[in-house]
Specification:
- It is built from eleven helices and 15 strands.
- With about 375 residues, the protein is α/β, with parallel strands linked by helices.
- The radius of gyration is 21 Å and the shape is globular.
């Protein structure tokens, strides 16, 4: 690759619009491009992809954008004040670092890096350059999670005791195992709702390919003295499930991302019975991923065994797509100087759990402490 002189991005007034370069225009990159078209004060100025086929699609997708094949071509010009990176995960850290060092603000898709060392390097680069670094933890911007977090802060669920997540589906393992591919969503939400970083993780995994990957994962995540979280993740399940159950001393919230009419609902402790809540929390506290079967990963702690069949209290939500809300949050932060929610520190904290969890994968599934810095 030829070295280029980095051209500093232009200084922007608070009322101005911002030019953005999209790096990577695969399936997710296309969704980002469509989302940007619905956000105010932003122009998709440049699209960069190493694939000729992707560049051809990009020319149709965004006719007014300049389409190039090398990030240096973007960093050597002034069209883009900010960069969004939607490339394969193994490239995230390197591309984000180059963009930060050029003075650009950066939104990098999850996970921000594939090692804690790389994540720390990015966090340090953002601090030293004064650039904004945001990580694409999209669920933090989902209207259901935003509302759930608000109600937890108001005490509607009482003391937080347990989070159970099932994130299942059938998709090819293109880059990472189920842990690295799916867990970032839930780990960022656990951290957000518990208002604390996970301190210990234990992971077990199974696969169909006979290799070292894990297509199905069971995990138990502890958050210090706060509640634990139990995760079931799968890339090879014929049923698609996107459900998060949050258990508190005064009630339970259910977030079902595939149920538009009942996406977020609440049940009071009186309605459920405190004995059932105590039973679920007690079983989860003893949950050992290594003792599970890949065919019944949440044996004993699947929330459906404990929740009533009634609709509960259904909460109305903003219908805007979370990816659009995430993009809007990034653009507003770039232009107005407001802090981002899923910042470099939170992205690094999620990578720390991912790395610790990966090291615990194996026959014994030993618990691992999570690095806090």
């Amino acid at each position: 690759m030829l070295a280029v002189d980095l051209v500093p991005p232009p200084t922007l007034a608070k009322s101005a619009s911002v030019g953005v370069a999209l790096i990577g225009v695969g399936n997710w990159g296309e969704k980002i491009a469509h989302s940007l078209s619905r956000v105010e004060r932003v122009q998709l100025a440049e699209i960069c992809d190493v694939s000729a086929a992707a560049r051809a699609r990009a020319a149709v997708l965004a006719p007014s954008a300049r389409v190039v094949c090398d990030l240096d071509d973007v960093l050597g010009r002034q069209e883009a004040r900010a960069v969004i990176i939607a490339t394969p995960p193994a490239t995230h850290a390197g591309l984000a670092l180059r963009a930060l060092e050029s003075g650009r603000d950066v939104l990098v898709e999850k996970p921000m890096a594939l090692s804690l060392e790389e994540a720390r390097t990015l966090e340090r680069a953002a601090r030293e350059t004064g650039s904004l670094l945001m990580v694409g933890h999209i669920l933090e911007y989902h209207p259901a999670i935003v509302e759930l977090r608000r109600r937890i802060a108001l005490g509607q669920l009482g003391e937080l005791r347990l989070i159970v997540s099932e994130r299942l589906g059938s998709s090819p393992r293109r880059h990472e195992n189920a842990w690295w591919s799916l867990a970032p969503h839930d780990l960022s939400v656990v951290r957000l709702l518990a208002s604390a970083a996970p301190t210990e993780v234990r992971v077990a995994g199974w696969n169909n390919a006979g290799d070292a990957g894990a297509d199905v994962v069971a995990a138990r995540v502890s958050v210090g003295a706060k509640p634990c979280a139990v995760l079931h993740l799968s890339l090879v399940d014929r049923d698609k499930v996107r459900q998060l159950v949050v258990v508190g001393s005064e009630g339970v919230a259910v977030f079902d991302d595939l149920s538009p009419e009942r996406m977020l609902r609440f049940y009071s402790a009186a309605e459920l019975g405190r004995g059932r809540i105590d039973e679920l929390v007690g079983k989860a506290s003893e949950f050992d991923p290594a003792r599970q079967s890949r065919f019944d990963v949440l044996d004993g702690v699947r929330p459906g065994r404990f929740l009533p069949t009634g609709p509960g209290l259904v909460v109305p939500l903003d219908r805007r797509p979370p990816l659009e809300l995430e993009a809007e949050h990034f653009v507003r932060s770039v232009l107005d100087g407001t802090p981002v929610q899923s910042d470099a520190a939170s992205g690094r904290a999620v990578v720390a759990v991912l790395e610790a969890g990966q090291s615990s994968l194996g026959a014994e599934s030993e618990p691992r402490e999570v690095a806090t810095e």
